[in-house]
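REQUEST FORM: STRUCTURE PREDICTION
Request ID: SP-0412
Submitted by: Lab K.M.
Chain count: 1
Length (residues): 148
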Amino acid sequence: MVDVAAKSASLRQAVAQAIVRFPPDVAAELQRTGLRGKKGAIVDTAIVAGTMAAKRTHELIPFCHPLALERCNFSVEFVSATELCIRCEVGITHKTGVEMEALTGASVAALTVYDMCKALSHEIIIGEVSLLQKSGGKRDFGMDRSQE
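STATUS: Completed
RESULT:
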């Protein structure tokens, strides 16, 4: 692990997203049912799973510090006829960043969507998982600096 003892605590935030692509017939069925499947409420279950994963990132990724997250919020929406975008925003006041927690939360939420929907098709694709922005450490990433 990186030694963060000499660092100052500051507000650390990160936003990550995962894209889930469905075959057109599956996407249409999910939109028709309000994103409910045989196992229940798909989005609600994905948010719970993603939150649990973000809080336990240090148990999954060996050199991550254990963090008591102060905020973990999700947004889930279709961004096209067949693509579901899952965003995870994490925040804490601490000495280390939360990029891995945001990425883990988005990833596990996407995996949960797959699990909840696999009875409909195994052609569902978990696409790009990416860090959209982070702030509060040595350098910010993905932030629009012109609005500061």
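NOTES: Residues 21 and 80 are 9 Å apart (CA to CA).
Reviewed by: T.R.
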